[in-house]
Write a structure and sequence with these properties.
This protein has four helices and twelve strands; from the N terminus they run H-H-H-H-E-E-E-E-E-E-E-E-E-E-E-E. The chain is of the alpha+beta class. The strands form three sheets. Strands 3, 4, 5, 6, 8, 9 and 12 form a seven-stranded antiparallel β-sheet that branches.
């Protein structure tokens, strides 16, 4: 009877192998569930970025109505001359934050929040706006997650002019951070923040997802390149590729 009871208890329990199998299954489920959760969160971040891009289009449109063109070097000079007592920070330079600050000089905008897009790449990340804009604090480091597009001046390579074509890109989410502007035909995209997706805002107000146009860099999975440039910078009527005529400034993170 004692032997039978012992055998029964052994059969009722789990062997070490069975326990290891169960643990492995639970671990796999945790990884799958965690990845699904992260993917869902990044989808939500991308949707917020898309909504904010459309808000920024309205803000830039109002600025253009007030100043006759989008923020550029010429409008910066004009605003500083007309309103020397105001100080929202640098209005030109190497980052998109600089040019976006110009909208605070007009009736176009009073809030930093529309410029938020969640990015976390290369050890840098965006943060929620603190809504402090006076005394040079507008869109300070990390408070803007959008890249901005400007045209290269044909007269002076050091000057940046406003986008004028209706079907040209106006802003991006998300480009890989850079301390110097990209040329429109040589951009590097952030593949981590939105799971290999990126958004582009065109000057006509449309927003396009570039998920089918990006290819991961073999050397660095956090970086991607644009495979179909014409999806972003369409050629002229004569077929000339105009992507190289543009500067693309990334946020100051």
């Amino acid at each position: 009877m004692k032997v039978s009871a012992l055998k029964k208890n052994v059969k009722a329990g789990f062997t070490l192998i069975e326990l290891m199998v169960v643990i492995a299954i639970l671990a796999s489920m945790a990884v799958i569930g965690g990845n699904a959760y992260l993917s869902h969160m990044k989808d939500g971040d991308r949707q917020v970025a898309q909504s904010n891009l459309q808000s920024v289009h309205k803000i830039l449109g109002q600025f253009k109505a007030d100043q006759t063109c989008y923020p550029c070097d010429s409008t910066a000079e004009k605003l500083q001359e007309e309103k020397p007592d105001l100080n929202f920070g640098e209005l030109t330079g190497e980052y998109s934050n600089n040019y976006f600050r110009q909208v605070f000089y007009s009736a176009a905008n009073e809030s930093e929040k529309p410029f938020f897009a969640k990015l976390a790449v290369a050890g840098k990340a965006t943060k929620e706006a603190d809504e402090r804009v006076a005394n040079g604090a507008a869109l300070s480091k990390g408070e803007n997650g959008m890249s901005y597009v400007l045209r290269k001046s044909t007269d002076d390579p050091n000057r940046k002019e406003a986008v004028t074509r209706l079907n040209a890109p106006l802003a991006f989410c998300s480009l890989y951070p850079s301390d110097t502007p990209y040329s429109g035909d040589n951009m590097v995209f952030d593949m981590s923040s939105y799971d290999g997706q990126a958004l582009v805002l065109f000057s006509d107000g449309s927003v396009k997802n570039l998920k089918d146009s990006l290819e991961e860099d073999d050397a660095d999975e956090a970086k991607g390149t644009l495979q179909k440039g014409k999806d972003v910078f369409p050629a002229t009527k004569k077929g000339r590729d105009i992507a190289g005529d543009y500067y693309v400034l990334t946020p100051d993170l």
